[in-house]
Amino acid sequence: MLYYLYKLLSGFDLPGLGMFQYISFRSAAAIILSLIITTAFGKKMIRILQRKQIGEEIRDLGLEGQMQKKGTPTMGGIIILSAIIIPTLLFARLDNIYILLMLTTTAFLGLIGFVDDYIKVFLKNKEGLAGKFKILGQVSLGLIVAATLFLSEDVIVRQNVKDANGEDIREIVIDAETGEQSLQYVTEDVKSTITTIPFIKKNEFDYEWLVSFAGDASSWLKWVVYALAIIFIITAVSNAANLTDGIDGLASGTSAISGVTLGILAYVSGNIIYADYLNIMYIPNIGELTVFVAAFIGATVGFLWYNSYPAQVFMGDTGSLALGGILAVFSVIIRKEILIPLLCGIFLVENFSVMIQVSWFKYTRRKYGEGRRVFLMSPIHHHYQKKGIPEPKITTRFWIVGIILAVLTIVTLKIR
Q1: Can you give the pTM of this predicted structure?
Q2: How is the chain split among helix, strand and coil, in percent rounded to 5?
Q3: Residue 140: exposed, middle, or buried by beta-carbon count in 10 A (0-12, 13-18, 19+)?
Q4: Could you tell me if 340 and 101 are in contact, meaning their C-beta atoms sit under 8 angstroms apart?
Q5: Higher per-residue confidence, 12 vs 89
Q6: Which of 70, 76, 93, 403 is the most buried (most CB within 10 A)?
Q7: Parallel, antiparallel, or unpaired: how do β-strands 187-190 and 157-160 relate?
């Protein structure tokens, strides 16, 4: 909104007003405001939750210090969502399709998580929202994202034009000021289902290749495959973030690390100079997402003020489902979804630990008459708790692993 105020007042030549035209300035303003909302107003929100007796019901799993958390306010995800949405509305360009899509994702999954928490807290139903309804919501969001990427004329990527032999076409370009000649690739802006493959020299993959056998039908069938991939990614990452939210500060800290990485990837992908230098896909208008991800980083880091050990508030499903969904949709939009297993490796391991535990338990129960476990408890952070490792140390070590994975993700820009 403030961007449009700048456009309206640009003729008055007010000092400092021109700063609003720069993504870097608006991103910095977004992260500062986000931190203020989470830290300054977060305490007031916690008091409101306490007065409403919106406390966490704790199941006794035999974990050290677990029952001390009983009654800790939950649904703190409202703080995170507010700290993402408000700065984005103020500092981002709201005519940008990518910003609108991320705001929709945040509100949509936040609402699903809120309903789940509401059922648990106010209706005293520990099961919360039925799993099938959560999945239905995530699938619906996947369809919305896929339809937007397919139908919107603003969603394009810049690709090199190829000749009949499949080689990139280049032409001589003369600089208008210096008269210097340079050989540059001929490019065009197109709608495409192309994405990025890490560590590969020509690191682009098109979903159309998966349906190339369909002939002429592949031009529309590729969007069906793309939609299915998006639905799977959103569902998997959103649920994995939900599973990770089991000890103080783990989900919010890990999400912040992933957010910083995605912000870097979005910025270089939306800057034609950096994209050309790094030889990566240039996506017009994607740089505006830097404002959104700055608010996301501020919200997750600021939430740690109250969510770090010992937590004064839990984010609940209101926050965890939204955080995972945001990371998933953001990755899809900037065409880096294949990097998710690396970038969100903590979420992936948490998810797999549950799948392995459940599968092995069911298999051994059928074969031996009693179920056996691979881990002392799943998700895997509870396994380490059972081994007697203090909760803060588990969280810190997971953060360190997350940072290592984030660095490796950024390294994929250059290592091919």
Answers
A1: 0.92
A2: 65, 5, 30
A3: middle
A4: no
A5: 89
A6: 76
A7: antiparallel
- Chain centre to alpha carbon of residue 104: 13
Beta carbons of 76 and 319 less than 8 angstroms apart? yes
What is the spatial distance between Cα 139 and Cα 230, in angstroms, rounded to a whole number? 9
Separation between Cα atoms, residue 319 and residue 10, nearest integer Å: 38
Average pLDDT estimate for 88-92: 94
Q: What is the pLDDT of residues 251-275, one digit of tens each?
A: 999 999 999 999 999 999 999 889 8
Q: Report the run of H or E that residue 272 belongs to, with start and end.
A: helix 272-278
Number of residues written out for the chain: 416
As given in the structure block, the two tokens for residue 347 are: 């979420």
Task: Name residue, tokens 């984010």.
Answer: 315
- Structure letter (DSSP) for residue 55: B
Give CA–CA dist 30/253, Å, rounded: 19
Query: Token digits for 9?
Result: 């007042």
- What is residue 172's predicted lDDT score, i.e. its pLDDT? 75
**Could you give the percent of the chain with pLDDT greater than 70?**
90
Return the number of other C-beta atoms located less than 10 Å from residue 76's C-beta.
Answer: 29
- For the chain, the C-alpha Rg in angstroms (whole number) is 23
- The CA distance from 288 to 92, in Å, is 7
User: With bands split at pLDDT 50, 70 and 90, how would you rate the model's confidence at 65?
Assistant: low
Mean pLDDT on 161-184? 72
The token duo for 104 is 């929709």
DSSP 117-173: HHHHHTS--TT-S-HHHHHHHHHHHHHHHHHHHHH-TT--EEEE-B-TTSPBPEEEE
Rounded CA gap, 72 and 58, in Å? 9
